[in-house]
């Protein structure tokens, strides 16, 4: 059951798509001192889930988290906010409940940090809607919430293939080399990402005609090789006479304004920029239709970046800093003055005062709304601009879109990648722990930069990260300019890395099916063990194993030099130790704690009892795959039934019953089918009978 409570006069964020009456009286279970705090006494030891993209564990107890979309790549344990604001919490009490705070400003969640068993929520602005959700169990509450906020974004099927990216592919030949090297090594590849290098001096919706001189022909050339080019789009529009996007935005009044009603001037990659007012529907549509420039050249996928929005500096703040820096010239800098000097420069980027100094024409109503009060909506609405434009420009076609910054509601228009991480083992673990939290909040199409974006990766880190990333819907290897090159062919273990990619493609019938069912049914693809085994007292203690769809439990190795790991099995399961799609071992393991060896080149995961996984033969791209002739891998002691979803991967008739087929496997290994997909199943591999 969902109950809606209103405080003050909130803006309509459009995070929620269903209508609910506003309740009178007190909110159940929690204490509210309006204008001060929301508090709740938690049951000792009971987990708290949610908050989507955040630091630390799946269980959120013991830390302070802030919803304040922040451009900060140094995701450490003492970080409080990442690139997103996902204000959904799920309290796993004896009578569980969830709350969603639809508040687009800064919100702080103290989940047992100040007082161990007390959750305290504070916020800068108390104009908001609060939704209270109770249900029979954790899955039910999440499903109600997901239904309330609308269907998750569905990408094209090719976007489930492997993607290679790097900030630094500066010309067509750089991209060609990536494609050629992957094909030479027989490693599957579906997409190559274009970072800011492809633009003319970092200007949105432009091309560098010197380094990409024949772009439509180049796009076609890559598509003929079944490679999709995916360019980046940034939030800031360069201030430059003669640049059509800038001139149109000025003419129409579509940029954010400062206190004086003039266009707000900040700086990002191109230098001085204006920010399109994404919260004004007219400006949002105008910006969204600009994607047509690249769609017309054959592009069918994009990623939005720097859309918190990130600010290198504002023009006015830069002037103040220059003035103050002059006062230090020729003077002795002691302890205090040294740090003041340093902080002046470091404080230029993403300064809170800058976010309080520009305004939006919110919903086109003409009344200025200060940015900090709606800060968390900017990235959401930039991606919404693209999503709505795609519906207008390409209504029958799925376009790939994912973003860095987000708010609940954006999940309907695109996915997210988990930001500018680092090549740290801790960030691999963070990637693992964020997946179920993001799924709770509707973000199904997600993944991290495999191998890490910043810093220098290592051969063992990239391989272990691939072993987890092959299960995530977005599987992209991305690295920063100036770091170690980490295309898979750069490493001596490239064959082992390539085998992991081949396993990913072999598992695509299962991964795509589980994704689509989760999206269409408002369910989670990745779940904590406690969601599937609520009666198991140990399940909620496990944070480094995840249920991935209906049949698989993933158990990634995430520590340097590790040649195995401890696992907990909440029931009897079948261990799969896989080195390639054709080279693997299986054995049953009893419920309980085990140590499982896993050599560097070995992927380990588990299949549940009386469950199966459909598999295909790997191919060089999704377009080259045969999804009609499949094999089954499973563990069957009685009977296993698997509901398979498949479609053409491009059109939007998602609800068509012809996309479903049920495959049944008996304990004797006999296979039967019931549905309209008419797949052909070759062999059953795994274990039948116990």
How would you describe this protein?
This protein is an alpha+beta fold and 690 residues long. The chain folds into 4 domains: 2-149, Sandwich (Immunoglobulin-like); 157-237 and 278-310 and 366-507, Glycosidases (TIM Barrel, Alpha-Beta Barrel); 313-348; 511-688, Sandwich (Immunoglobulin-like), CATH 2.60.40. It is 23% helix and 27% strand. It has 14 helices and 42 strands. The strands form 10 sheets. It has a 9-stranded parallel sheet.
Short description:
The protein is an alpha+beta fold. It folds into four domains: 2-149, glycosyl hydrolase (family 31) (Immunoglobulin-like, Sandwich); 157-237 and 278-310 and 366-507, Glycosidases (TIM Barrel, Alpha-Beta Barrel), CATH 3.20.20.80; 313-348; 511-688, Immunoglobulin-like (Sandwich), CATH 2.60.40. The protein has 14 helices and 42 strands.
């Amino acid at each position: 059951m969902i109950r809606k409570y209103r405080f003050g006069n909130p803006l309509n964020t459009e995070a929620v798509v269903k209508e609910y009456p506003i309740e009178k009286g007190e909110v159940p279970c929690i204490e509210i001192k309006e204008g001060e705090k929301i508090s709740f006494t938690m049951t000792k030891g009971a987990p708290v889930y949610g908050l989507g993209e955040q630091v630390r564990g799946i269980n959120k107890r013991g830390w302070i988290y802030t919803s304040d979309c922040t451009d900060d790549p140094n995701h450490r344990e003492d970080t409080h906010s990442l690139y997103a604001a996902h204000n959904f919490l799920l309290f796993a009490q004896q009578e569980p409940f969830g709350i969603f705070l639809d508040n687009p400003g800064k919100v702080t969640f103290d989940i047992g940090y100040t007082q161990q068993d007390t959750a305290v929520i504070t916020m800068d602005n108390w104009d908001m809607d609060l939704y209270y959700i109770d249900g029979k169990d954790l899955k039910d509450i999440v499903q109600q919430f997901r239904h309330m906020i609308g269907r998750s974004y569905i990408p094209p099927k090719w976007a489930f293939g492997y993607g290679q990216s790097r900030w630094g592919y500066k010309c067509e030949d750089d991209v060609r080399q990536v494609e050629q090297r992957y094909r030479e090594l027989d490693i599957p590849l579906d997409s190559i990402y274009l970072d800011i290098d492809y633009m003319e001096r970092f200007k949105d919706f432009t091309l560098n005609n010197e380094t990409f001189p024949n772009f439509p022909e180049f796009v076609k050339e890559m598509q003929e090789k079944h490679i999709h080019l995916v360019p980046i789009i940034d939030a800031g529009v360069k201030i430059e006479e003669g640049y059509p996007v800038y001139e149109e935005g000025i003419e129409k009044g579509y940029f954010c304004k400062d206190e004086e009603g003039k266009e707000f001037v900040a700086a990002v990659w191109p230098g001085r920029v204006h920010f399109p007012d994404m919260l004004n529907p007219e400006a949002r549509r105008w910006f969204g239709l600009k994607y047509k420039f690249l769609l017309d050249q054959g592009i069918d996928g994009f990623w939005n970046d720097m859309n918190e929005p990130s600010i290198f500096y504002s023009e006015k703040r830069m002037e103040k800093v220059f003035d103050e820096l002059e006062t230090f010239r020729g003077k002795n800098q002691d302890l205090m003055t040294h740090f003041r000097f340093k902080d002046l420069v470091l404080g230029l980027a993403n300064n809170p005062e800058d976010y309080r100094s520009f305004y939006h024409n919110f919903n086109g109503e003409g009344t200025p709304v200060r940015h900090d009060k709606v800060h968390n909506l900017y990235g959401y609405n930039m991606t919404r601009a693209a999503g709505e434009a795609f519906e207008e420009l390409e209504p029958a076609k799925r376009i790939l879109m994912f973003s860095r910054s987000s708010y609940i509601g954006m999940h309907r228009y695109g996915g997210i990648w988990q930001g500018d991480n680092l090549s740290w083992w801790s960030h691999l673990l963070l990637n693992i722990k964020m997946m179920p939290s993001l799924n709770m909040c509707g973000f199904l199409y997600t993944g991290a930069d495999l191998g890490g974006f910043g810093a220098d990766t290592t051969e063992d880190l990239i391989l272990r990260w691939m072993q987890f990333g092959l299960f995530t819907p977005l599987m992209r290897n991305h690295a920063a300019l100036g770091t170690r090159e980490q295309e898979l062919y750069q490493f001596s273990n490239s064959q082992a890395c390539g085998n992991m990619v081949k396993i990913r493609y072999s598992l695509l019938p299962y991964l795509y099916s589980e994704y689509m069912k989760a999206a269409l049914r408002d369910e989670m693809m990745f779940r904590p063990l406690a969601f599937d085994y609520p009666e198991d007292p140990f399940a909620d203690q496990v944070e480094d194993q995840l249920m991935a769809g209906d049949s698989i439990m993933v158990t990634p190795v995430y520590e340097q030099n590790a040649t195995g790991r401890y696992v907990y099995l909440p029931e009897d399961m079948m261990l799969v130790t896989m080195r390639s799609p054709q080279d693997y071992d299986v054995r049953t393991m009893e419920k309980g704690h085990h140590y499982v060896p896993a050599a560097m080149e070995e992927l380990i995961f588990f299949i549940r009892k009386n469950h199966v996984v459909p598999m295909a033969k790997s191919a060089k791209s999704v377009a080259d795959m045969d999804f009609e002739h499949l094999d089954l891998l499973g563990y069957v002691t009685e009977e296993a039934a698997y509901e398979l979803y498949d479609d053409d991967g491009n059109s939007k008739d998602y609800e068509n019953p012809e996309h479903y087929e049920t495959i049944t496997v008996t304990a004797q290994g006999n296979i039967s089918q019931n549905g309209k997909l008419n797949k052909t199943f070759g062999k059953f591999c795994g274990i039948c009978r116990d």
